[in-house]
């Protein structure tokens, strides 16, 4: 038997706002699994994290990834489905974990703008000040 939260989430996935967001993610990821590159299997749009009380379509683009069913199941098997993290923590994790830092800097800028109304210009100015101070 599904919990109330699971029932709510299932209903949200029928909402046109989720359908639109899902299509945007699949298009961004070129309709292939971002883990294994599979272009033939059914694709799922996976939330990298959850924020309590937020609708499934109310996340920034970097919060999603396209996964084939096999990779999606493997991801859920290896993580706690109740895992919740703040977008700030997620942005920092993305920024520090990969080698694609220019792209991740844009993702972090999107996060800062969504949650804190900080623009990329503000972020660059902050980083330049910190670099001059020698604190980076």
Characterization of the model:
This protein has helices at 4-12, 16-28, 69-78, 87-97, 101-116, 120-133, and strands at 43-47, 64-68. The chain is mainly alpha-helical. It has two domains: 1-85, His-Me finger endonuclease fold (3-Layer(aba) Sandwich), CATH 3.40.1800; 86-136, no CATH class. It has a two-stranded antiparallel ribbon with strand order 1-2. α4 packs antiparallel against α5.
CATH topology of the largest domain: His-Me finger endonuclease fold
- The strand line-up of the biggest sheet is 1-2
Uncertain parts? none
Structural class: mainly alpha
- Class of the largest domain in CATH? Alpha Beta
Q: Which CATH architecture of the largest domain?
A: 3-Layer(aba) Sandwich
Distance between the termini: 51 Å
Shape verdict: globular
Helix percentage range: 40-55%
Total domain units: 2
- Counted by DSSP, the helix tally is 6
Give the biggest sheet: 2 strands, antiparallel
What is the string of helix and strand elements? HHEEHHHH
The portion of residues forming beta strands comes to: 5-15%
Mean pLDDT score, rounded? 77
